Amino acid sequence: MALYLITGASRGLGLELARQLGSLPASEVSKVFATARGDAPILEELAKKSSGRVIVVRLDVTNEASIKQAAVEVEANLDGKGLDILINNAGILQYALGVSTMDNLTESFTTNVLGVHWVTRAFIPLLRKGSLKKVVNISSTIGSIATSRFVHLLPAPAYKITKAALNSLTVQYALDYEKEGFTIFALSPGWLRTDLGGETADLSVEQGGKASLEKIFNTGKEQNGQFIKIEIKGWPNDGRNQYDGSPAPW
């Protein structure tokens, strides 16, 4: 009966994770706290049909006061229990032609890196009370420094830089909290057909959500601090996007 919190659940992968988790038996998933920074009609409709198992929480990852208030609200709905799994999914992708034209690094960094830091810090006390103590930071292989030449032409330098920074943040948290029994890792959910990923992406959001949850369910302390790819069985290993479930290169 695990208790989950997902940031950025108003659309895309976050919404799909909330939907799939909410469809699982209550014996496996007790409650899903699905956060959104503003109005989220699709998420609200999902919550109404969930018999109280999906709870919408207002949370803006760029606003520390909003995060702290969300933590208070979540704690009030835990009935004295702890939070088991935090999925830091909220993020933005902004386009620029190159580093010299990149005027959006501050905004991207605030959302993609500081937002994850602030949210994780605020919910660590509730995670300490949980049985799984798991934090999953949704990253991207686009942020891999080792493969940066391959994705150089993608006009999103701020996204690449901030995902690389997120990976480093993940490792620092993993090392700091491993003695307390935490499992903290970065997960690349693949190139998905969402508003962020576009219509020509490799995978449907349903595929990405299912494969991501398989990793979230099955990843244990031996993967603490790792950067992991999802696994799509039968996906061709052609040297481009690989979904083989292995650790991604830093």
Automatic annotation (TrEMBL):
Pfam families: adh_short
GO-annotated molecular function: oxidoreductase activity, acting on the CH-OH group of donors, NAD or NADP as acceptor
Domain of life: Eukaryota
Similarity comment text for this entry: Belongs to the short-chain dehydrogenases/reductases (SDR) family.
PANTHER family xrefs: SHORT CHAIN DEHYDROGENASE, SHORT-CHAIN DEHYDROGENASE/REDUCTASE SDR
Name of the protein this chain belongs to: Related to short chain oxidoreductase (CsgA)
Originating organism: Phialocephala subalpina
Species classification: Eukaryota, Fungi, Dikarya, Ascomycota, Pezizomycotina
